[in-house]
Amino acid sequence: MTTYLFSDSAVLTGRTLRHVTRSLDTIITTAIMPIALMLMFVYVFGGAIDTGPVPYIDYMLPGILLITIASGISYTAFRLFMDLKSGIFERFQSMPIARSGVLWAHVLTSLAANTISLVIVLGVALLMGFRSSAGVLAWLAVGGILLLFTLALTWIAVIPGLSATSVEGAGAFSYPLVFLPFVSSAFVPTETMPGPVRWFAENQPVTPIVNTLRDLFAGRPADDLGIALAWCGGLLVVAYVFAMLAYRRKIA
């Protein structure tokens, strides 16, 4: 059964990847908003924000990368919703393939598409002056955390993709996820925030993830690494369970 799942998922992933490569504008669109935010924050607001000796582009890049992922996963929900409406799921159910293969195809496609968007945003950041003293292991850790975060948000995207009643509803869930980094340590130190906002910022998942990425980029010990991994892993497990429940209800 596991062998069938891997082989069927690979074939179905090839199908969804072809859809993405035929509409590369979705990847470009995903990268445009984070790049625009990066340009605005660095060149308009950056001079008014005190981050000490750390260049502002270095300080805020981790938050921009998370926004890139949050923007990209909305297309996963959209593609899944469109597959449901087209009746392709019913056709797949009549074929001798692993039932969860179609979900994993969308998840793996999301990982690939978001990786391309992240590389584009990181390339623009380098042109804007971003520099990192991270070693190879630190860069691998950065990649691993971003991959785990993408995987967690992608499984969250599967839920509205399966349960939404309109295209707008399938993608609207991503708006709070895009907004979340703004109420975190991504763009300003949490110490500058008023009490209740600061409490929320310091106790939501984005802040430890941003702090960990920032430390890894700077070549420092990542004190929040355990908390960041716990948030990513916890979100992934919960989202996966609810996504599979939604899928079983949909195909029942």
Automatic annotation (TrEMBL):
It comes from Paractinoplanes globisporus. Belongs to the ABC-2 integral membrane protein family. Keywords: Antibiotic resistance, Cell membrane, Membrane, Transmembrane, Transmembrane helix, Transport. It is a multi-pass membrane protein. It is found in: Cell membrane; Membrane. The keyword Transport applies. The keyword Flavoprotein does not apply. This is Transport permease protein. The chain crosses the membrane at residues 27-49, 61-82, 103-130, 136-158, 170-188, 225-247. InterPro entries: ABC2_TM, ABC2_TM_bact-type, ABC_2_transport, Nod_factor_ABC_transporter. Residues 25-250 form the ABC transmembrane type-2 domain.
